[in-house]
Amino acid sequence: MIEARQLRKEFRTPVVKKGRWAGVRALFSSEYVHKEAVKEIGFQIKRGEFVGYIGPNGAGKSTTIKMLTGILHPTSGEVLLGGINPHKDRRRAVQRLGVVFGQRSQLWWDLPVKDSYDILSRMYGVKPSEQQQRLDQFAALLDLQEFWETPVRKLSLGQRMRADLAAAMLHDPELLFLDEPTIGLDVNAKRNIRSFLKLLNEEFGKTILLTTHDMDDIEQLCGRVMVINHGELTYDGTTRQLRDQIGLPTLIRVTYRGEYRLPVLTPEGRYPFRLTEQKHDRITVEANRKEISTMDILRELGSWGEIEDVVMEEPDFEEVIHRIY
Ligand SMILES: Nc1ncnc2c1ncn2[C@@H]1O[C@H](COP(=O)(O)OP(=O)(O)OP(=O)(O)O)[C@@H](O)[C@H]1O
């Protein structure tokens, strides 16, 4: 559904020399700095996937999204959206895609929200009956009524983001590109946006590519995650595999019913897990899931006494990501 083939973007910026009229002289400068923001990346995203696209600041995420959506021309390489090249056939491509940039609204700043929807519907050739039907649906899901008549510039960030999401979906595109849609939002607002996105993906089958710095977005929404660093794809796989690959320990807390007996753990390590805490009827062990499965650990711990309760604590996803940046 989304295909990037050897996609590359190099920015050329004129060198600004110090001194009087520096800015003006830069306009006529023949010296440039070259920045390869995206270095020949390639991937395919299938219909119905929800993919997270993450990386540290300046890694090349927004540049990629802008190329995928046809806003920015790649220096080389090709993008195909359901077989359509957005740089060659922009009209057809925009009918298929919706975009939300968290930092910038596509709505008309001084107009009431509803007027922006009228303009967008005309632009995309959405029939009035369809517009009404979709807006009714979005209004119910995103609580749009509370700011229907309000000029966009007066909306809170959370309201603006909901209004923008509805705008992006007004022409019912198959693909949705989201660049930091939860940036700066409070916990409740994030939850609302996430459940709407989940619904779009799971119930309406939309294919979604999401960039974010919020690892909860990734964990809660994305089955697959791609990591970009210094313009290169450094990981592409499931969040589960990513955790396993980094190999941070999982904590397993077991409470025993009554007596239990610890075996003598030899220094060379009879078991590929470590006992990190022992308190009354409870013990905590730490294990690397690459080395031993949870079932094997529980089988072993079960042989020490009768298990009453088990609590597992996965490594913090934020920490996992920190290790690969
Ligand atoms: N128009 C431009 N001209 C010159 N350099 C640019 C331009 N746009 C982006 N860059 C540079 O390209 C690199 C990638 O930028 P990009 O905005 O894609 O990163 P990002 O991963 O989206 O970062 P962030 O998480 O901070 O939004 C950065 O070094 C940035 O300074």
Automatic annotation (TrEMBL):
Q: Keywords for this entry?
A: ATP-binding, Nucleotide-binding, Transport
List the InterPro entries: AAA+_ATPase, ABC_transporter-like_ATP-bd, ABC_transporter-like_CS, ABC_transporter_ATP-binding, P-loop_NTPase
Q: Does the keyword Plastid apply?
A: no
- Start and end residues of each ABC transporter domain: 22-255
Residues folding into a coiled coil are none
Keyword Endoplasmic reticulum applies: no
MF terms from GO for this chain are: ATP binding
Query: Entry's PANTHER family?
Result: ABC TRANSPORTER ATP-BINDING PROTEIN (PTHR42711), ABC-TRANSPORT PROTEIN, ATP-BINDING COMPONENT (PTHR42711:SF1)
* Name of this chain's protein: ATP-binding cassette domain-containing protein
- Biological classification of the source: Bacteria, Bacillati, Bacillota, Bacilli, Bacillales
